Every structure is written in C-alpha cells, then in structure tokens.
Amino acid sequence: MLFRRRQPETRLQRLRAALWPRRSxxxxxxxxxxxxxxxxxxxxxxAAGVAAGVFATFTPFLGFHFLLxxxxxxxxxxxxxxxxxxxxxxxxxxxxxxxxSTYETGRYLLASEVPDGHAxxxxxAALSHMDLAAVWQPYLKPMLIGSLPLGLGFAGxxxxxxxxxxxxxxxxxxxxxxxxxxxxxxxxxxxDGTP
Length: 195
Hints:
Radius of gyration: 23 Å
Number of strands: 0
Number of domains: 1
Structural class: mainly alpha
Strand content: under 5%
Number of helices: 8
Distance between the termini: 56 Å
C-alpha cells in the first residue's frame, strides 16, 4: 500500500490519538479554524452550518448528532460540511462538561428533585432492552430541557463568531485576488508595449 505505515499503530496508540491530538491542541484548533473558513459558501451558510452542529452537540441524542445537525443546517440554508465540523465540539473531553451542564440546567428549569446519586434501578437492563422510559424522567428529560437554552446560546455565539470570521476571511481573499489580477494585467500591458 502506498500510504501505509511501516509500523502499524497499536490499539493504545490509536486510542491516545483519538483522545489527544498528535501535535498540540493549538495546532489542531488552528487546523479546524482554517477548514471552516476555507469552505466555499457564503458567510451565512458557513456560520449557520457550524451553529447547527454546535446546537446538535448539546442534545442528549448521542449517535444522532450529525443527522440532527444536517437537518437543522438544511432548514437554515447552512453548509452541511460546516455542520459536521460544528459537531466536533462534542468529543470525549467536552461531553462530560456538556452533559453535566445540560442536566443541571434542565433540573433547574424543571425544578426537579435531585436523585440520590444512584442510577435508577435496572439502568443497565433498561438500556440493553432499549427501555428508555426507565431513564427518561430522572435523566434524559432534564438533559433534553437543559440542552435547549444552552445549545441555542452557544449556537448563537458560534454563529456570530464564525460569520464575522468567514466574512473577514473571504473579503481578504477577494482583495488578494483582485490585487493579483490587477498586477497581472499591468504586466501584460507592459509586455505588449502599451502604456
């Protein structure tokens, strides 16, 4: 194979790479920023896509975040690749924070009592038999209710930030393109002997 490693990665190395970037967090975040800004779409479409992905990440529907983000982005005329990149906010490092904050916010909004700190009776059996009714009231309902204001808030912030960044990036790219085009036409004019 042309691009295969000489020494295949072990499972531990793959797990480490999935949880922690190979180079640094700063480089990985800079790479993602460039990926978003270089998308060929309007600033609104890019920002709406990222905002849809960020909102979907706050919902407790783990495994359906991409589908939910694509549906929301489609309704908002957003960019689907930008929605997928917005979903990357949810990762093993951020999910505990997101879940705890959505649960606490939902519990506060519902004014519900705190469970005694133990999982509901038969949680493992309920999840293995897909009995969501057993975990709906104590955990999923507060998380869903709490995800709405938090998700909308973070989606709004990400929309504004990405819209301004995309508009600025595209304007700078347009200026560079126009300057290059003008310089080429001046060189051609000088090469032809015309002033």
